[in-house]
Amino acid sequence: MNLKDIIHYFFLLLAALAAVGILMAKNVLHAALSLIICLLSIAGIFVLLHAELLAVTQIMVYAGGVVILMIFGVMLSSRVANKPLNVETARKIPGFITGAGLLFIIVYALTTTSFSLHPNSSTPASNNVREIGFQLMSSYVAPLEIAGILLLISLIGAAVTASFLIKK
């Protein structure tokens, strides 16, 4: 076992523990922070698999955007209601049985399926992720930047709206 394998298993374990932390958290803010850890560890796995574009997209879109907005919404809604957002877990046994059944199905499917890169040839398929990255950074730079600016404007608008709600 080399260093790359050890790091890979570390990220896998961290993602699994963070996913369990999401399920077990009673406070919604703690669950959102566990989600950030889980998404960042998955981005680390993407880096180890030489899928850097997916890793950067994972960090920018999910960990950087969606989760920050979710934390912002949780903090805003708890401040308006003046109550902490706690979640009570119900139906633990049916959830555990369903999760164990789905895990069994996934493990069974992974162990009985033979995976190949391309079914009709022995050569690997072309690197589509690299081509997507080159296209985004060469042909589609303007739409990518406009989408980023629109997301920034919506975040600023949400902050202004929140400041008005908190003052009232």
Question: What features would you describe in this structure?
Answer:
The protein has 2 domains: 1-105, Up-down Bundle (Four Helix Bundle (Hemerythrin (Met), subunit A)); 129-168. The longest helix has 30 residues, at 52-81. It is built from 6 helices and no strands. The protein has 168 residues and is mainly alpha-helical.
Q: Estimate the mean pLDDT confidence.
A: 81
Largest sheet: none
Assigned CATH class of the largest domain:
Mainly Alpha
Q: CATH superfamily assignment of the largest domain?
A: NADH-ubiquinone/plastoquinone oxidoreductase chain 6, subunit NuoJ
The overall strand count is 0
The helix content is over 70%
